[in-house]
């Protein structure tokens, strides 16, 4: 009975939990409540994924209104996988949040942090679950507005400016998206994504459809921080509270990428082959620019959070590269890297947040010699860094393997070489951290620094462990990603 | 005639859209940027509501003698979008108040100039 309502519960539970959370007066109560809610989310998401793997696409009619009149939640392998990622990251960061936030913000603000976090979770899960293009916009704004608040709650006054800039850019992105949907709606008279895919061939090659596609692409590219539309991301990630950075870095851009996949392949793919629109070439060019330029910027960055933020822009480049390759192997690489990058960037930001717990600001100079005082933290950082480089046995290797495979399949050897060679850049910026922490002498001022509390260390290491586990046992992630890719491409 | 009226709506939409976006990009005052953002969002309301109106159409209530109905769905969608716009503007203004408290100015270049000495 309840199993049939899982898609709705996935979104409704955190939505209803948020106002209750706002009414709790103490930070610790709000934390306990938000943790319980966050922990039910992956249970539901995994149950949905199993249902989808077993019985195919789920179509849930909100209020029993038949689509395309009512809003439909339509879940296939691709968005079930994204639901699992987002809800799992949400569940892992919650135990971490308590100690980290107690250090980073006054008690009276913590309640608001947890409330906004639950709303943000609602928005992200809703964007992934829904099958209605306008409903996506509503959830996108729920997620965005709450994430602006999460960022503004950072302890530094620069967080306010970062949040304001993100608000301007994020709103322009969401508005571009809604303009694009408006054009499609005017042309087809429907907002249901599956219905759109069926009706678009009827208005083939008309200018408003292309204008709509252009607006959608730019709007979502702003949201997913595709180079050169990534300028909002480093500031937002650097100044947000540590735990918010880890959560948003691992989930928010990933959901936007999922939407891009959905529109490119499910909605337009059937009737407008992407290759005819020169989209793949453009995306490969922008992705390579992201990988190379953002990595180089990361190498010269002294603030570790900003370094990891630029590294995120570069890693998003790998994901969009897979979209540009426009083949089953390429999309598999994209989707598997979407998941894997969520794991490793989540792990790295949690570990850096743990260093910030003790040191305040985290710069390359400040962490000199700290590996001796925080052995577990930096051991995790080394493994996460290896994953970022793509060392075999970590998740980073699995993603790059599929991307190289897809490039070779096309006969583009130069691209395969570039993908492998670009790993060196990641090696350089992660290597700088390791070099500073392990091989430089510790200044006397760092004598008081010590390992973060266990409640923060365990969640961080769970993600580090996941980086290795899914790197060795690729059966689960790669299989599911391949099935999701087939679903998006419409091949059996 | 009907065509000209329809195009008039589209022109207004596009002009508002470009004015809004220009103000966001060109102005350094944080409040003025938000005003631009609101104008930009308002243009989208027109983009949706405009095509929903059919000249000579009535509200979609089945009655004798009426065969042409206007589409009510865009209005409902835009009610939602207006709420989103109001929330965005409120949050944006709240952030500007906090920025003013923390930096003592709401000019973007002055704020960025003072970031270094925080």
Write up this protein:
The complex is a heterodimer of chains A (492) and B (118). By secondary structure, chain A is mostly helical. Chain A folds into 2 domains: 272 residues, no CATH class; 217 residues, no CATH class. Chain A is built from 18 helices and 2 strands. In chain A, helix 9 runs antiparallel to helix 10, helix 12 runs parallel beside helix 15 and helix 14 packs antiparallel against helix 16. Chain A is globular, with a radius of gyration of 21 Å. The relative contact order of chain A is 0.09. Chain B contains 4 helices and no strands. The termini of chain B are far apart. Chain B has one domain: Helix Hairpins. Chain B is elongated and about 70 Å long. The model of chain B has no long low-confidence stretch (mean pLDDT 86). Chain B has 118 residues and is an all-alpha fold. At the A-B interface, helix 5 and helix 6 of A face helix 1, helix 2, helix 3 and helix 4 of B.
Examine the secondary-structure arrangement and name the CATH architecture of chain B: Orthogonal Bundle
Share of β-strand residues of chain B: under 5%
What is the CA–CA distance across the termini of chain A? Answer: 30 Å
Oligomeric state of the chains?
heterodimer
Query: Would you state the CATH class of chain B?
Result: Mainly Alpha
Unreliable segments of chain B (pLDDT under 50, ≥5 consecutive)? none
Radius of gyration of chain A: 21 Å
Mean pLDDT over the residues of chain A: 89
* Shape assignment of chain B: elongated
Summarize the structure.
The complex is a heterodimer of chains A (492) and B (118). Chain A is mainly α and 492 residues long.
Q: In terms of topology, how is this protein built?
A:
The complex is a heterodimer of chains A (492) and B (118).
Chain A lengths: L5 H18 L3 H29 L2 E4 L10 E4 L1 H28 L2 H23 L3 H20 L5 H31 L4 H7 L7 H18 L8 H7 L2 H26 L11 H22 L3 H22 L2 H32 L15 H15 L5 H15 L3 H27 L14 H19 L2 H15 L3
Antiparallel strand pairs in A: 1-2
Helix pairs in contact in A: 1-2, 1-4, 2-3, 2-4, 3-4, 3-10, 3-13, 3-17, 3-18, 4-5, 4-10, 5-6, 5-10, 6-8, 6-9, 8-10, 9-10, 9-12, 10-12, 10-13, 11-12, 11-16, 12-13, 12-15, 12-16, 13-14, 13-15, 13-17, 13-18, 14-16, 14-17, 15-16, 15-17
Chain B lengths: L1 H25 L3 H23 L20 H31 L4 H8 L3
